[in-house]
Amino acid sequence: MTQFNVRPRDDGRHGRTIEEESFEAAALAYVEVWPLPVTDADLSVVVRDLESGREQCFRVDLESGDTQACG
């Protein structure tokens, strides 16, 4: 498993380290434990691989769990 730091796209204060198999899986795992209320139907998160420093941004649909790259 890989360690990722996942945080909301617009808020660096609520980041969390998550161990998962992929960027997408880390994004979903983070959204499952998101502690704050969300007014939109989705949440954009930035996922950073702690070893390589590579980052990806995902928009996660909170109802279906579908993920897509941020636009």
Q: Describe it for me?
A:
The structure is a single chain. With 71 residues, this protein is mainly β. Helices cover 14% and strands 42% of the residues. The chain contains 1 helix and 5 strands; from the N terminus they run ββαβββ. It has one helix spanning 23-32; strands spanning 2-8, 16-20, 42-49, 55-61, 67-69. A 5-stranded antiparallel sheet has the order 2-1-3-4-5, with helices on one face. The longest helix has 10 residues, at 23-32. The mean pLDDT is 89.
Number of helices: 1
Largest beta-sheet characterization: 5 strands, antiparallel
User: What gap, in angstroms, lies between the N and C termini?
Assistant: 27 Å
Q: How much helix is in the residues?
A: 10-25%
Number of strands: 5
Instruction: Report the order of strands and helices.
Output: EEHEEE
Tell me, what's the shape? Answer: globular
Strand content: 35-45%
Provide the structure class. Answer: mainly beta
Oligomer: single chain
Rounded Rg: 11 Å
Report the uncertain regions.
Answer: none
Average per-residue pLDDT, rounded, comes to 89
Lateral strand order in the biggest sheet: 2-1-3-4-5
Give the gist of this structure:
With 71 residues, this protein is mainly beta. The protein has one helix at residues 23-32; strands spanning 2-8, 16-20, 42-49, 55-61, 67-69.
